[in-house]
Write a structure and sequence with these properties.
Oligomer: single chain
Number of strands: 0
Radius of gyration: 22 Å
Number of helices: 16
Distance between the termini: 22 Å
Helix content: over 70%
Amino acid sequence: MHPPDSIDYEFILRKAWPIILANIAVPLLGLVDTAVIGNVGTVEDLGAIAFGALIFSFVYWSFGFLRMGTTGFAAQAYGAGDELEVRAILGRSLLLATSLGLLLIFLQWPIRLVAFYLLTGGETVEVIAQQYFSIRIWGAPATLSIFALMGVLIGLGQSRTLLLVQLFLNGLNMVLDIWFAGLLGWGAEGIALGTVIAEWSTVVFSGWLVFNLLNARKSSTEQFWSKRQVFDPIKLRRTLSANTDIMIRTLLLVFSFAWFTNQSARFGDVVLAANHILLQFVSFAAFFLDGYAFVVESLVGSAIGKKSRVLFDAAIKKSTVLALVTAWTLAMWIWLFGDVIMVQLTDFPAVRTAANEVLFLAAIYVMFSFVAFQLDGIFIGASYTRQMRNAAFISLMVYLLVWWVVIDRYGVNGLWWAMIIYVSARAGALLFYFPSLRKSIVP
């Protein structure tokens, strides 16, 4: 397979829908875990899983650079027709992922100490959560390696294979969780064990898929991996630098949402719960917008590898039009039908009332967020990671300044307006760097 020579709306939709389905499949696993423990486990088991899942979500999200950094480099090598470099990128990414995963296992004691110092629960919950953590941590090398393998698949535009990997991971995980926790009654430990087995099984399965894909595209006289290419010091430094930039950008992004949640708590439990529900709407919209962003990562990287400004412009224009239509459709859906969905999510009238009062602001956030998603995809595909890091810092400063100015006068509404301005500032900061990115593509 070769990178596309032309791009139309149908092509982008065909690439985006498997990614959207893969994204939607992720939260289903959490629902199954909750349902299993909610029916056969104890309240303490349920609380322990919530604690454990929160810890690993934060830890693994911090290493999301393994997926994003790999995608940009793989897409550019693919566009340039350099299959040897594509395989070398896979080798470097897997080496980094495995090393970091083993480091997490080695550092599990201090990680656990810090995590449970920050999270406070009942004594029984904390004991069970620590048992859950002690099992789940052994899946770290597999999980991070899956990030690297998914990065290659996205970079090569293999969105259907990505969906297959995600369905395999979540499907096997669900089956094992039901078996271990439900049928065998192992509770939270069973959930953790099922997840670890699913993670290691998936890294083998996805590794086999990627190996076969890349092996079929090399000549019979070539080695799959060139040691000299994989350990090229210049490219290793570039990989580490890019991944460090993305990690900083991701941590700043995590901080911004954590700040929003923490400030929501200042207005009481009802507002905290209401904003949590509205953030679920925002997350649901992100599943769709990420689909277009992932596709544009691949297409932009490929266009840069081919040194084609025409393909670069076409990829951005057509994917952004689709993202705009999707974002505004989702925003209108939230605005018009959010109160109806709210009834299914909570039976507390006070929470529904509080959420409905700022529902239109959540819709406005989604309406404007697609620009930041698209630009993230463009910059990841181009491996313009330093600019992403800088933009994340600038937009966070804008966010905190706006929050400081409006919070006392406008309360919860001010908090939401600060978030809307924040996501707009993310887009604005990246747009500042966009002209130089485009000019760097010299035919």
